[in-house]
Design a protein that fits this description.
single chain; mainly alpha; Rna Polymerase Sigma Factor, Chain: A; 0% strand
Length: 195
């Protein structure tokens, strides 16, 4: 007698989960969104620079992805397509709201006294906040297309090919944007940090 084994939803591939969703399994899409919510948040946060806006952008992006799921044709990975939707939602939100002062600079709760890196040394906390602020400013010194390309590659962990697919551009354009983005970031940071 053969043993029937059920694959847990979290172990299923993206393609299997999309097929299950198409067959009426409502939980399959939830598993996909849970799988990519962390990277989606990192991308949105880097594009917007503010925690509340990033959370809103991820929520808006997930809603857009859900309502336009039929537009996903499988020409790229689901992750690549989803991060394109998320990054576009974040950029749209950034354009609508404009740039605002940063209130929270990282994923930790502001003022968390139990943070292992800052509990004993308050000056270290200030140095980390200054560095995060400087990196945020450096990212915002890039053009929007360079910033989106850089963040999808660095924070979204997409390959050059996946970034090209997400933005509907050539791999050469991705390489060019990343080259100039890195040059500009290096120059920006070199002017502000004593090396």
């Amino acid at each position: 007698m053969g043993m029937i084994t059920a694959v847990s939803p979290s172990a299923a591939s993206d393609e299997e989960l999309l097929a299950k969703h198409a067959a009426g399994d409502r939980e399959a899409l939830e598993v996909l969104f849970q799988r990519y919510r962390g990277v989606a948040y990192r991308v949105a946060y880097r594009l917007l620079g503010q925690e509340a806006d990033a959370l809103d952008a991820v929520q808006n992006g997930f809603v857009k992805a859900l309502t336009h799921l039929s537009a996903f044709q499988g020409r790229s990975s689901f992750k690549t397509w989803l991060l394109r939707v998320i990054s576009n939602a974040a950029l749209d939100m950034g354009r609508q709201r404009g740039r605002r002062e940063i209130r929270s600079l990282d994923g930790l709760a502001p003022g968390d006294p139990d943070s292992p890196l800052t509990f004993h040394d308050p000056t270290l906390r200030l140095e980390q906040a200054d560095l995060r602020q400087l990196i945020r400013e450096a990212l915002f010194s890039l053009s929007e297309v360079q910033r989106q390309t850089f963040i999808l590659h660095a924070d979204g962990e997409l390959s050059y090919r996946e970034v090209a697919d997400a933005l509907d551009i050539s791999v050469g354009t991705v390489m060019s944007r990343l080259f100039y983005a890195r040059q500009k970031l290096r120059a920006y940071l070199a002017q502000r940090i004593d090396l």
